[in-house]
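Late entry, written up from scratch paper. The run itself happened at the end of the previous shift, but nothing got recorded in the book at the time, so transcribing now.
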Amino acid sequence: MQYQSTRDKNLKASSAQAVLNGLAPDGGLYTMPSFDEARFDYREVLDLDTFAMSAKILSKLLTDFSEEEMAKLVREGYAGKFETDHLTPTVSVGEDYILELFRGPTSAFKDVALSMLPRLMTAAKEKCGFTDEILILTATSGDTGKAAMEGFCNVPGTKIIVFYPYGGVSAVQQAQMATQAGENVCVCAVRGNFDDAQTGVKNIFAAVGREKLLEGKGVSLSSANSINIGRLAPQVVYYYRAYADLVQAGRIRAGDKVDFVVPTGNFGDILAGYFAKEMGLPVGKLVCASNANNVLTDFLRTGRYDRQRPFYKTVSPSMDILVSSNLERLLYLLSGDDKLVAGLMKSLSEKGAYEVPADMLAKLHELFWAGCCDDAGAKAAIGKVWKDDHYLCDTHTAVAWDVAQQYKQANPEHNAVVVLSTASPYKFPAAVLEGIGEQDRGDEFDVMEQLRDVTGVPVPKNLADLRSRAVRHRDVIGQDEMLDYVLRKAVQPRW
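Output as recorded:
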C-alpha cells in the first residue's frame, strides 16, 4: 500500500517511509487513498488476545511489515509495560461502558501508540536502509510528551524534543515531563498555548525541508504526534479490543453496532475509530466530545471550521486545542480531493477558517455526532459517576461522559455506548477532588494523596513517586525561538 500526501496525491511513500518521515514534504499528512487493502472480516480477531489482534490489524495498515514481523514488534512494545497484557480493559459503568486506555506506563491513552512507535521507527529504518539519527519533534497538550519520552528513552539512533505550552498543562503532567530521565530526551516549555507549540513544530519541519538546514549533519526530523501514521495506527486496535470484549462478555452479539464517545482535541483518537469503521468493524456513531474549546463541535454540526475564537484554559487541558491537525486526513479520505484539502488548509492558515462543501457535510453527519461540555459540566459528571456508580474518572473522560448523555437523550435508538477514558484521574487530582465534593488542601501532590484517602482508589505507581524525582528539564522559550533551539540541540551528541 502506498501512502499519499493529503495535499498532493502525487507525493507518495511506503508505509515504512511514512512512519520515518512523519510529515509529507509539502506539509500534508500521509494517508492511504482508500481502505480497500485494509478491510478484513472483523470476526477473525474477536477471539484473539490483544497482542495477536494488534499484529493482525497493524500489518493491514502498515503493509511493509508482515503479520509475523509485526507480532515481534508488538511483543517488544507492550510486554510487561502495562498493568495487564490485555492493555485496554472495557468496564461496565451504569448503562454504558468505559474503555480504560490509561493502564500503561504514563497513565494516559498515548501509551498504547507511543509504546509501539519507537519499534516501528527502528524497524522502518532497517527496511529503508536509513542511517541518519532520527530527531523526533513533538508538541504536546499534556499527555503525548511524557508518553513519547518514555517510549523513545534511550532508543538507539533516536533523540526526542517535546514542546509544551508554558502554564498550559497540569502540575502532574509537567512534573512527569520535567523529571524524565534519558540521555536522548529533552522537553521545553513554549510561551503560548498548544496551537502555538504545534504550529511552531510544523514550521520547523517546513523550514528544515525547504532550506535543508540539517543536510549533511546525519540528522533527520520525524514526529511522534498523531500526524505520524505510525502513531495513529496502533490506536485503531483498541476499538476492536473494546468490541471483542463486549461480544465475549455477552453484552452484544457479533454484528451489532457500537457507538463510541471520544474526548477530542487533535482529532487523532476519534479518527482511529473512523479507520476501524472503514476497515470493517461494526461501528455506529462516532461521538466527538469537546470542552469549552468547542471548535470541532461547531465544525461537525455546521461544516465551518473557525479557529478565530477565544481560547480557554480548562480542567481538561489535553483538549485545549483550536487547530485539530488530524482532521485533515478525514477531509481527504471523505473527498479524495487533494486540491480541495490543500485549499482548505491554506484558508485555515491565512484566514483562520474554512467551510466544507455541502456533500462533505452530509457525510460528516452520517458518521459523527458532536457535543461539548464546560468545566462545570465536567466536574458535575465526575461527581455523578462517583455517586451513582462508584467509578472515578478524570476530567477528559468526564467531558465525554457528559456528551454521551447528551447523545443518548437526542438519539433514543442509540447502540451500546462505549466512552473512551483517556487518562488516570490522578493526573488531574484537584479538579477530580472538587468534582466529588471535596475541598483540596496543599499542592497537587498532596491532593493526589487526599484523593486516594477519600476514594480508596490506588494512585498509579508511575505517579505516586513524582514528588521525589529530580527535575531535569527547565527550558522555557518563545515560539520564535523554537527553530534555533532545535538546530542547536540537533548537533549536540548528548543532552
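The mean pLDDT is 96.
(Scratch paper discarded after transcription.)
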